[in-house]
């Protein structure tokens, strides 16, 4: 849905002035998440810790022209073409705009509030309803005064259903969220102690949360929760209510039976005299409660019981769940170091309990200071001590000054440390045996360090990815370009083998402009993982348009068939102005339109409104080799003619790009509007000179076993490795199934052990290979580098007569990727 600058100024009741109107499609409050600068409206929010006005200059440089501000900006006159919409309160303006936007749509909107489970309920409702309705929902847990307006802004003309969560930490906040969300169906999950500081009583908090539900057509809540029932009664909603109960058959939704199995739960219910049941693939009490809330919503929307049962059975867990890993000395580690309020502690302890009971293990809890409760420390930790005792914890390790001060309240085997560092410095592995250890701490305590220490280090082959080097390389290429030139980071083929999600996340935080993947599914995975920046899909398939659209992925269009098909499919869904990228074949002769096709491309584009050419681009056939320079220049000329033609016949600015990594290094004068950075980002220079590019990926393993063998013996399959001297032969757990090319067998390739090269002996096996370490001082357990700093992929590529790209992308997905920053 589009607005002009002037329309927005009117909605937010700004001081009257003249604006140079732009079409605004995106709202921005965090300058790091900028994607479409020309169409972005930035709200300079002022918080206790930050002032958005500080980022205006930088955003202007990146192409943003529209700003909502609270006061004039120094140097405003120099920012030509910029609009400053001046208001008293930028947050209020953001909320007004979202509220006005919401009112334009007459669709069902579900508002979810409560203390725990909001995000899970929202995500599950999405999984349950999306097959029937084109649904938008809050991204992750965007439930705050800022997150809610941004969530609501996503509603568009095609939206048939919206699900938003609303969270508050102080009185008077919910009124604003209610104004913006205007839910037609309201749901309150439960009320717990989290965020209690701002409220005098728990009733007050409950009443405040219920404000979200005040104008709904129907409200859903737990009819067995006396606090919520009391508050609902007090507020006299006067709308339809679906209170569910496990005890009271007269409630609209009666849960007659809950049967827990090993890893699933069957729930029987009666709704309007009708009996039915369904099964969810979860057993925790919290999941059961969340599923019942979702059931009530599905029933309200008249979804048939068999549909409900079928979809409930397929619910998937929402990220941030607890992970269980193998630990040292037969321990199991449950890592839940994301938050630490009493409710989530109870949930985690339940989870631990079930596991411990099943395995007959001792229960240990490592717990940090608990934040976010309104209770005085003594009552808080008395309560915690009580819960811990009830849940059968046998050993407590408390970390933090406050829990240490209250040590006397705990009546079990216990030890306390003032900080995570002091615990780690005194850590002795022998102190832990056959225990199920729950690690539960506030983020600030960095308990992931503890879980890493307790986890079992396996002999394994890993690909270590240095995220700092990625950032270094990104900045290096950025410094070779004009500041306004945009960068598309190629993360196709699983980020050239390095793993696309972590890289995408890192690059998104660094302010990269675009990502490019090969196929739609790769893009969908990134979106699911929370990547919000624009994503190009280089090889979209006809069958993947739905995925493209639902994850807002921007396809490369290289043929008339594809163009026709996407327009037809987009038309069915009523899309308008969907961004696509036009690929020109300027001489590579792989995919793309040829120069002679341009008039017809222009006709087809101008004849419809479904898609819009956001960029036009072409790809070099030999930009890394000087002997092809003349050809590369011809490619540039052909491309330029095609791009000029397209631009002349378009009302919008179309971005152009042709340079890949080698192009950036060798023809920076043709950087145009954007470049496409691939191999250079991953630490490999495509030309002779290393150009300051840092190594990113290291493929590593460890020595399993060493044998001393006399001359004349043979090693491995086919007896190919004939020993010509008395040798020490080491076996390492990496084979061709991990991506170690079998052509490196029999001394053709080598690896690095303790700084020295060890040749590969005999044939490489599927999972193991043997190396000659006769001249190397080493023992089992020592590290082995397959490629990395000491043995560059370029060298291996040369040995094999291939290119580094193939070496990088051949590392099998079964090889664990480990990411680190220095
Ligand atoms: C892979 C790819 C790139 C990146 O190439 P590098 O040589 O890795 O920089 C650029 N453009 C297109 C179309 C690609 O497929």
Automatic annotation (TrEMBL):
<dbReference type="InterPro" id="IPR036615">
    <property type="entry name" value="Mur_ligase_C_dom_sf"/>
</dbReference>
<dbReference type="InterPro" id="IPR009006">
    <property type="entry name" value="Ala_racemase/Decarboxylase_C"/>
</dbReference>
<comment type="pathway">
    <text>Amino-acid biosynthesis; D-alanine biosynthesis; D-alanine from L-alanine: step 1/1.</text>
</comment>
<feature type="active site" description="Proton acceptor; specific for D-alanine">
    <location>
        <position position="492"/>
    </location>
</feature>
<dbReference type="InterPro" id="IPR036565">
    <property type="entry name" value="Mur-like_cat_sf"/>
</dbReference>
<dbReference type="Pfam" id="PF01168">
    <property type="entry name" value="Ala_racemase_N"/>
</dbReference>
<keyword id="KW-0547">Nucleotide-binding</keyword>
<keyword id="KW-0663">Pyridoxal phosphate</keyword>
<dbReference type="GO" id="GO:0005524">
    <property type="term" value="F:ATP binding"/>
</dbReference>
<feature type="active site" description="Proton acceptor; specific for L-alanine">
    <location>
        <position position="717"/>
    </location>
</feature>
<protein>
    <recommendedName>
        <fullName>Alanine racemase</fullName>
        <ecNumber>5.1.1.1</ecNumber>
    </recommendedName>
</protein>
<comment type="function">
    <text>Catalyzes the interconversion of L-alanine and D-alanine. May also act on other amino acids.</text>
</comment>
<keyword id="KW-0436">Ligase</keyword>
<dbReference type="GO" id="GO:0008784">
    <property type="term" value="F:alanine racemase activity"/>
</dbReference>
<dbReference type="InterPro" id="IPR051046">
    <property type="entry name" value="MurCDEF_CellWall_CoF430Synth"/>
</dbReference>
<comment type="similarity">
    <text>Belongs to the alanine racemase family.</text>
</comment>
<dbReference type="GO" id="GO:0016881">
    <property type="term" value="F:acid-amino acid ligase activity"/>
</dbReference>
<feature type="binding site">
    <location>
        <position position="590"/>
    </location>
    <ligand>
        <name>substrate</name>
    </ligand>
</feature>
<feature type="modified residue" description="N6-(pyridoxal phosphate)lysine">
    <location>
        <position position="492"/>
    </location>
</feature>
<dbReference type="Pfam" id="PF08245">
    <property type="entry name" value="Mur_ligase_M"/>
</dbReference>
<dbReference type="Pfam" id="PF00842">
    <property type="entry name" value="Ala_racemase_C"/>
</dbReference>
<feature type="domain" description="Alanine racemase C-terminal">
    <location>
        <begin position="696"/>
        <end position="820"/>
    </location>
</feature>
<feature type="binding site">
    <location>
        <position position="766"/>
    </location>
    <ligand>
        <name>substrate</name>
    </ligand>
</feature>
<keyword id="KW-0413">Isomerase</keyword>
<dbReference type="GO" id="GO:0030632">
    <property type="term" value="P:D-alanine biosynthetic process"/>
</dbReference>
<dbReference type="InterPro" id="IPR011079">
    <property type="entry name" value="Ala_racemase_C"/>
</dbReference>
<dbReference type="InterPro" id="IPR029066">
    <property type="entry name" value="PLP-binding_barrel"/>
</dbReference>
<dbReference type="InterPro" id="IPR000821">
    <property type="entry name" value="Ala_racemase"/>
</dbReference>
<dbReference type="GO" id="GO:0030170">
    <property type="term" value="F:pyridoxal phosphate binding"/>
</dbReference>
<dbReference type="InterPro" id="IPR001608">
    <property type="entry name" value="Ala_racemase_N"/>
</dbReference>
<keyword id="KW-0067">ATP-binding</keyword>
<dbReference type="InterPro" id="IPR013221">
    <property type="entry name" value="Mur_ligase_cen"/>
</dbReference>
<dbReference type="InterPro" id="IPR035911">
    <property type="entry name" value="MurE/MurF_N"/>
</dbReference>
